[in-house]
Amino acid sequence: MPISVVINTYNAEKHLERVLDAVKDFDEIVVCDMESTDSTLDIARKYGCKIATFPKGNITIVEPARNFAIKQATHEWVLVVDADEVITPELREYLYNRIGQADCPTGMFISRLNMFMGRYSNSKSSNDYQLRFMKRNKVDWPHTIHSVPHIDGPVEKAPNKYKMLHLADETVHQLVNKANIYSDNEVVKKMHKNYGCWALFYRPLWRFFRTYILKGEIMHGKRGLIKAYLDANYQVYVVSKIMELKLREKDCNKK
């Protein structure tokens, strides 16, 4: 059975050639571009990709373009890949073998290995599962940040040994900037929450403990400590921004 690879892009020239080279043996590559101004489209054309355009407008996240991008694929099975992720040959072989089996699910989570401060690590926080393999007509992707697609049918996890590699070597500067942008978008998802002041303590503390202890960053020295601290700080941003909006609404209602 054939598989289409779908890649959403915006100014993705940095890693795109390596990403496309890793998926060139799939049956189709669809690049859904959000009006890039760099050489992204030139690279996509070089690899013979099918190209679709999704107007960027004021959009700062990829999720609003996911459903549109998936619908541009020709084949029933779709593998969604970010423009900084490499699919290993072992993962490709596994996916083709799996869809030929009678008990194949409708969707599949795939393990992603992440890099931080120049290194991949074996901690749990450096591996996350992404729901990226699915039947094209059985998926609905919510438009909110970090959303998990809704799959109409059974879903399973691919074995952890079959991974995609996240090429983004995130620096502290980049993570701080992303935290501000991502937390703005996450506020939309969590506006129904009524956080009290205590949440400014327990949510960051829990996130620090989960990353540093439960996910094993304690084994990675200074890098691990910094990673856990940044994860905790993200929760401060989210809770603070939600509290700020509710306080402003309360003040407006009093006027």
Q: Please give the count of helices.
A: 7
Fill in the CATH topology of the largest domain: Spore Coat Polysaccharide Biosynthesis Protein SpsA, Chain A
Count of separate structural domains: 2
Number of strands: 12
Structural class: alpha/beta
State Rg.
20 Å
- CATH architecture grouping of the largest domain: Alpha-Beta Complex
Within CATH, the superfamily of the largest domain carries the name Spore Coat Polysaccharide Biosynthesis Protein SpsA, Chain A
What ranges have pLDDT less than 50 throughout 5 or more consecutive residues? none
The largest sheet, given as strand count, sense and whether it forms a barrel, is: 10 strands, mixed
Give the termini distance in whole angstroms. Answer: 63 Å
Indicate the mean pLDDT: 91
CATH class of the largest domain: Alpha Beta
Shape: globular
The helix/strand order is EHEHEHEEHEEEEEEEHHH
Helix content: 40-55%
* Proportion of beta-strand residues: 15-25%
Write the layout of secondary structure elements.
Blueprint: E1 3-9, H1 13-23, E2 28-33, H2 40-46, E3 50-53, H3 66-71, E4 77-82, E5 85-87, H4 89-98, E6 107-116, E7 119-120, E8 127-135, E9 139-140, E10 150-151, E11 155-157, E12 163-170, H5 172-189, H6 199-214, H7 221-254
